[in-house]
Specification:
29% strand; DNA-binding
Length: 199
DNA sequence: CATAGGATCGCCT
DNA sequence: GGCGATCCTATGT
């Protein structure tokens, strides 16, 4: 089942980030589908979250995407090198987002290896938000795409997330501080990162 | 217009 | 554990 608007539009971004563990991130570009099982995410809790790009209600051409309705892709360039993929959650004008930090490669390993410039898979191949985008072919120019409009035409591009009923028990999901947000002061310590070692 | 810095990665030691 | 790559974005003049 493709995750519907009702999954993304809820107001608890931390819960959504936790529930995204075990879901399958899918992309289709040039008619070629690739996917991976999500095993690490981070929640960014809108205008009250110092670690969020939208902290304090800041708006800019880049962060404007975060104020869109739930189910929109927010992809931005980090360190001039890496595209980082997030899903916007909640309703329009509430800039919540979930960063996908790691996936276990699933469909079309060959193409994903090629994209990552690797010759074989290792445990860490999809571990890291920059690597997630590299494997799936997601680029910062894809920011603003809807994850709810699934292309029926196989030649059409699209990104979406599926529930393939992969069960990850609650006790197997660790809640940890987020990575790389030391500038966020007190908010840097919030347990908004979710990760499982089961997948 | 100029500038500093970033929700990272891979390679080096 | 340290560092350079690399370029967009935000901010300030």
């Amino acid at each position: 089942m493709i995750l519907p608007y009702s999954f993304y539009s809820r107001n608890d971004v931390v819960l959504i980030a936790r529930e995204m563990i075990g879901k399958v991130l899918v992309s289709r570009f040039d008619g070629k589908t690739t996917s991976g099982v999500i095993y690490e995410t981070e929640a960014y809790n809108g205008i009250v979250d110092k670690a969020s790009h939208a902290f304090g209600g800041r708006r800019s051409p880049r962060t404007e995407i975060m104020y869109r309705d739930g189910g929109t892709a927010y992809v931005y360039l980090c360190y001039g090198v890496h595209s980082l993929f997030n899903v916007v959650t909640n309703k329009e004008d509430i800039p919540h987002a979930v960063l996908v930090r790691a996936v276990r490669p699933l469909d079309n390993m060959k193409l994903m290896l090629e994209r990552a410039g690797k010759s074989r898979f290792e445990k860490k191949t999809g571990d890291g938000p920059g690597k997630v985008s590299a494997l799936l072919g997601i680029h910062y120019s894809h920011t603003g795409m809807s994850l709810l409009c699934i292309p029926s035409n196989l030649k059409h591009d699209g990104i979406w997330i599926e529930d393939r009923e992969i069960i990850v028990p609650d006790h197997a999901i660790a809640a940890l501080p987020r990575i790389g947000v030391q500038y966020a002061g007190k908010d840097a310590k919030l347990p908004y990162r979710f990760r499982t070692e089961l997948l």
